[in-house]
Amino acid sequence: MKTTPYENNKELLKTLSCACNVDIPSPEKQSGQLMTWEQLNEVTEHNIAIGSHTHTHRVLSTLNEREQFHELEKSKKILEQRLGDTIHSMSYPVGGYLHFSDQTKALAQQAGYKLCFSYETGFNRKRIDAYNVKRIGLSGVTSIMKGQLFMPSVFC
């Protein structure tokens, strides 16, 4: 479902809803906030950066170029407007290598992002791809993670 174009999933959601005898949540419920704008502003006041995650969390690789750019740009603009600060980073929805492309990375740069994070774990080498920053993996590598946190220049 995640890699199927969004337009093809509209009917699937209705079918699943009927088959499972579960109502699709109302638009109000679907747009519920995990954090309020007040909480986000408080976080930024304590020097914690806020990044984007697109406007509607659709998997970018399932969208055409125009739709991808809209998702990237609209989220950034809303966050900047509401928080009064520049948004420099974003994390790709789902974030695996099937969920964004080189075109997506170019569109993110065009939208004004400086860093984009994938879901993939691994080492970011000296020549970091700013539009595919890998995350620190935790499984079985606690000592490596501690080293990355306390001596980041050694692990670049």
Report a brief summary of the structure:
The chain is mainly alpha-helical.
Largest sheet: 3 strands, parallel
Order of helices and strands: HHHHEHEEH
Shape: globular
Total beta strand runs: 3
How far apart the termini lie comes to 36 Å
Helical run tally: 6
Rg: 18 Å
- β-strand percent reads 5-15%
How much helicity do the residues have? 40-55%
Secondary-structure content class: mainly alpha
How would you summarize the topology of this molecule?
Layout: H1 6-20, H2 27-30, H3 37-45, H4 65-83, E1 89-91, H5 102-110, E2 115-121, E3 133-135, H6 142-150
Parallel strand pairs: 1-2, 2-3
Helix pairs in contact: 4-5
Detailed description of the structure:
By secondary structure, the chain is mainly alpha-helical. It is 42% helix and 8% strand. A 3-stranded parallel beta sheet has the order 1-2-3, covered by helices on one side.
Which characteristics define this entry?
156 residues, mainly alpha, 3-stranded parallel sheet, 6 helices, 3 strands, 42% helix, 8% strand, globular
